[in-house]
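Listing S7. Sequence submitted for prediction.
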Amino acid sequence: MKRIWIRKIANRITVTLFCFTLFLYTMAFPGNTSWFILLFFSLLLLVAFLTTLLSFGKAEVNLRNQLDYKKEFILQARTRFYLPILIPEITARVTLKDMQLEEKLFPLFRNQLTIHLHNLQLPRGRYSLVRLETWGRDYFGFFTHYSSKKIPVAFDIYPEPFAPKDRHTYINKILGNPYLKRYIKSNAAEFRQIREYIPQDAMKHVDWKSSSRKNKLMVKEYEKEIQPTITLLFMGGTSPSFEVLLRLTYSLFVGLRDQFQVRFVLIGSFEGTFGQQDVLEAFLTIEPTRDEEKLLHAWQHTKVTGGFTIGIAESSLIERMKQARTEPIIAFSELDIIQREVSNP
């Protein structure tokens, strides 16, 4: 923006010197022609200057999901009093937290700017404000336009889950753990009887052999339906792999919740305060913390109500996590991350 203001000041100095020279010429050689030239250029400069006094009023931002968790970003801003834009080319910059996006627009004679960006990959977090900056020159290049507007928004960007193929690889590693296999088997539902199907029954419980014999749908009824519980524990240390490990935690949550009852605990810094949270919004606000002892102390005092624990942390913390408590734990670190996911988040 400093360059824009320097250019703006330089343009005004140039125009001022031109007007002063024209005025001196008219005073030195008065006549109809010289006065006509002075008035003509004065009117022209005034119109050119007025076209740069452009500002925007009503504005709205829409964010839509695309394939592969990419976003489609649409920003529309109308001029104040619906006045037409008389600047042939405008550069628009959109700022979302630390991310800046620029686009050149050609809105001559319109009263609205539309910025349409596809395949946008936004950093995770909660977005409450979008800043729109515009700049350009009048039609004759005499004056520079610049305006800035803050647009309130309310949308959340969660970590991007890994691709389904890679999620399947991680889940297979989890399901192959012998301790988890034993836990799942001990919580298997106990068969009770076969009865006639009612609309509230799930189709996965249909006994097709019995249905074929009786020529009507029959289902298996179980004495108890206890869904195995898995706890995902994320340790937010100051590892360069912090974001990719958080993505792994979120990916496992997405991939396992259809098969198990999944809960998660995120340990780290939340808005400058160390602590642990187990709500979905915590994925938006968690930040790394430098104090490993605090992380381990929090892990020692984390209540895991039954079920099985999956720990996700940097490699230097994994062994200390296993030593801190006696129950078995499946551990993931940056060493277990598929390399293509690290290089192409």
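Caption to Listing S7: primary sequence and predicted structure tokens for the chain studied. The mean pLDDT is 86. The two ends are 31 Å apart (CA to CA).
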